[in-house]
Design a protein that fits this description.
By secondary structure, this protein is an alpha+beta fold. It has nine helices and 20 strands. The strands form six sheets. The protein has a five-stranded antiparallel β-sheet with strand order 6-7-12-10-11. The chain is globular, with a radius of gyration of 21 Å. The structure holds NADP nicotinamide-adenine-dinucleotide phosphate (NAP). Belongs to the MurB family.
Length: 345
């Protein structure tokens, strides 16, 4: 793609702060509004500017200006593409809002995504991080996806095994895949099993349902409870800019978990299928004194220490400074390394 022959859906010198939920300043040299998969083929090929993919910008830290081509994935559409005795099959465009997809499926009477209500971001971003909440993750409801290979311009179809889903992880996070602008996810298909079972084991969700005196919740009641819990705990980016959870929950060897528990008997620990132990990053941050504490114009949110917030007018370097300060204190106190969840542009 030579600069002189840019298609008309490619914009130049685009301000990005309103396109990411942390609202950090920065401009992109080029930004393509992708509303149909065939536009991607026009931009494919080797060489050319550095490429990166953007959805709703809810998991992005802008370090400053982006000198390259941002592909803003805005492909819409959601439909039931099939149904059999076992399941409903629902396909959605990568640019669809995730929460609106969840709400729409529930309104149609197709349960299965309710625990994932109120998660920010787009449908196309959901498999990359294998978003999850309250004991359910996208991989549990995923059938396949379509993506454009940005080197060849060809469409690829990936099934569940090819995506190599793990805890908040997938093949797309590996180098040379989606995050490097190599594969642009265009559509995702979900399988929603008809044999539905409520997943209400997490303490916050169970407490909210108990508070509402709902003993046998429907899928829609679970979604409503999830929304109630999440909106109490998490800041609205329109009011207080943020990128959701800022650090991954660390998964450590059982021996490390034992060592921590002997020094800190209250440390929350969750045994994983592989024998390792998942720790709550928010708890580690809170115990390190960062809950509700600011550094410059950024801080760790007072109601949920895992969320880094922009108090107003912050720049990317301030986010990086706070991230490093939190990492250093958690490392010093617990000997645990925290890794950031958002993508740094
Ligand atoms: P929370 O419910 O306070 O839980 C904190 C940590 O404890 C998480 O690591 C969670 O595991 C774990 N945990 C709690 N109860 C558990 C149980 N019964 N069994 C196993 N693990 C348990 O977390 P929160 O910060 O308020 O977030 C609520 C939910 O939203 C969590 O599931 C969290 O992971 C999810 N969330 C996801 C994303 C994302 O996908 N990017 C972003 C924000 C929050 P899990 O992480 O395995 O659930």
């Amino acid at each position: 793609m030579a600069d002189g022959q840019l298609p008309d859906f490619v914009l130049r010198d685009v301000e990005l702060s309103a396109r990411t939920t942390l609202a950090l300043p920065g401009r992109a040299t080029l930004l393509a509004e992708i509303t149909a998969a065939d536009q991607l083929a026009q931009l494919a090929g080797s060489g050319g500017p550095r490429r990166c993919i953007l959805g709703d910008g809810s998991n992005v830290v802008l370090s400053g200006d982006f000198d390259g081509l941002l592909l803003h994935m805005a492909i819409s559409g959601r439909e039931l593409i099939g149904e059999d005795d076992q399941a409903w099959y629902v396909r959605a465009g990568a640019g669809e809002n995730w929460h609106q997809l969840v709400t729409w499926t529930l309104e149609q009477g197709w349960p299965g995504l309710e625990n994932l209500a109120w998660i920010p971001g787009t449908v196309g971003a959901a498999p990359i991080q294998n978003i999850g909440a309250y004991g359910l993750e996208v991989a549990d409801r995923f059938l396949s996806l379509e993506a454009c290979d940005m080197l060849t311009g060809k469409t690829r179809r990936l099934d569940r095994a090819a995506c190599r889903f793990a805890y908040r992880d997938s093949v797309f996070k590996q180098q040379g895949w989606h995050l490097d602008g190599r594969l642009a996810i265009t559509r995702v298909t979900f399988r929603l099993p008809k044999a539905w079972q409520a997943l209400t084991g997490y303490a916050d969700l169970a407490a909210e349902l108990a508070r509402q005196q709902i003993a046998r919740p429907s899928a829609r009641e679970i979604a409503a409870a999830v929304i109630a819990v999440r909106s109490r705990k998490l800041p609205d980016p329109a009011v207080l800019p943020n990128a959701g959870s800022f650090f991954h929950n660390p998964v450590v060897d059982a021996a490390v978990g034992e060592r921590l528990a002997s020094a800190y008997p209250k440390v929350p620990r969750y045994l994983q299928a592989d024998g390792r132990v998942k720790l709550a990053a928010g708890w580690l941050i809170e115990q390190s004194g960062w809950k509700g504490r600011d550094l410059g114009r950024v801080g760790m949110y007072e109601k949920q220490a895992l969320v880094l917030v922009n108090r107003g007018g912050a720049r990317g370097e301030e986010v990086v400074a706070l991230m490093k300060a939190v990492q250093a204190d958690v490392r010093e106190r617990f000997g645990i390394e925290l890794f950031p969840e958002p993508v740094f542009l």
